[in-house]
TrEMBL record:
Domain Phosphofructokinase: 6-281
Keywords: Allosteric enzyme, ATP-binding, Cytoplasm, Glycolysis, Kinase, Magnesium, Metal-binding, Nucleotide-binding, Transferase
UniProt-recorded name of the protein: ATP-dependent 6-phosphofructokinase
Binding residues for substrate: 129-131, 166, 173-175, 225, 249, 255-258
UniProt similarity note: Belongs to the phosphofructokinase type A (PFKA) family. ATP-dependent PFK group I subfamily. Prokaryotic clade 'B1' sub-subfamily.
Pathway, per record: Carbohydrate degradation; glycolysis; D-glyceraldehyde 3-phosphate and glycerone phosphate from D-glucose: step 3/4
Localisation per UniProt entry: Cytoplasm
Binding site for Mg(2+): 106
Length: 325
């Protein structure tokens, strides 16, 4: 059993619904074991500037239902340099922080991996990203809330599409991963989905519009923002160019996908992995992401979590094609 006395907790990268639930779980689990907690504002940027404060039960009261992150988040170019990481470490030593819980995604864990290898301080991570693109957990914190936000928005868009016999091209988040687009496309009965992992999406869409049913009163196409065709505006331009008879509209959902109160699933997931992070540090774990696989806590080294993104199940793509006839 490792003698951890003071855990520093921070959020980094893009915010995700459920991050506050994770912070709450870390603080309360640490206090359960008699460990102090130091909050670090604005991620690695705050770590390098010494923006620390002591957290207690009251610090995390009434936050489990709130979106965003009470610890704030920011990008930090300085932390990419040895000098920036050295300054961060000196602030940790000054504040007697002897372990870290990093809540974030790919970039957060990349920084944590480098920092943990340079300095003798145990670091574990919690998967907080709406993209669900990390290996080592079935779902990431924020993903369930984000896809439900998308489904709610697309359902509303379809009402307008039906009323005007329109084709709507809806762009969702997913710069490097099409998991949000894929799952929400199935859930909303989309005509087609265009995702970075599938290079035949645009061709398939154009073929379907040309040879598919002509009696549909509405069509919804879901496009991941990282899709090679150039996103919703470029897809819309190509569709309008080839099919000028279609009344085509573009809708960019943008950052509404990151906001809002976290779903029950995200609150429970965040609570479980947050408490498990404290226990992992007590048990001597370091440089690992704490996730949930098949309902059980799982530990994945940072280098595996950040190098290997979740693959797309081809059966899911086939399902979209099958059900959109």
């Amino acid at each position: 059993m490792t003698q951890i006395k003071n855990i520093g907790v921070f959020t980094s990268g893009g915010d995700a619904p459920g991050m506050n639930a994770a912070i709450r779980a870390v603080v309360r689990a640490a206090m359960y074991y008699g460990i102090e907690v130091t909050g670090i504002r604005r991620g690695y940027d705050g770590m390098g500037k010494g923006d620390f404060f002591t957290m207690n039960r009251k610090s995390v009261s009434n936050i489990i239902q709130r979106g965003g992150t009470i610890l704030k988040t920011a990008r930090c170019d300085e932390f990419r340099t040895p000098e920036g990481r050295k300054a961060a470490y000196e602030h940790l030593v000054k504040n007697k922080v002897d372990a870290l819980v990093a809540i974030g995604g790919d970039g957060t864990f990349t920084g944590a991996k480098v920092f943990g290898s340079e300095y003798d301080i145990p670091v574990v991570g919690l998967p907080g990203t709406i993209d669900n693109d990390l290996v080592g957990t079935d779902f990431t914190i924020g993903y369930d809330t984000a896809i439900n936000t998308v489904v709610d928005a697309v359902d509303k868009i379809r009402d307008t599409a039906e009323s005007h016999d329109r084709l709507f091209i809806v762009e969702v988040m997913g710069r490097d991963s099409g998991l949000i687009a894929l799952r929400t496309g199935i859930a909303t009965g989309a005509e087609a989905i265009l995702i970075p992992e599938s290079k035949t999406g645009l061709e398939g869409l154009l073929n379907r519009l040309e040879f598919g049913r002509k009696d549909k009163t509405s069509r919804i196409v879901i496009v991941a923002e990282g899709e090679d065709a150039g996103g919703a505006f470029e897809v819309g331009r190509l569709v309008q160019e080839k099919f000028p008879n279609y009344d085509t509209r573009i809708s960019i959902l943008g950052h509404i996908q990151r906001g809002g109160a976290p779903s029950c699933m995200d609150r429970v997931l965040a609570s479980r992995v947050g408490a498990a992070a404290v226990e992992a540090l007590r048990d001597g774990h370091r440089n690992e992401m704490i996730g949930l696989i098949n309902g059980e806590i799982a530990y994945t080294p940072f280098e595996h979590a950040i190098k290997h993104h979740q693959g797309i199940d081809p059966n899911m793509i086939k399902l979209v094609e099958m059900l959109s006839m």
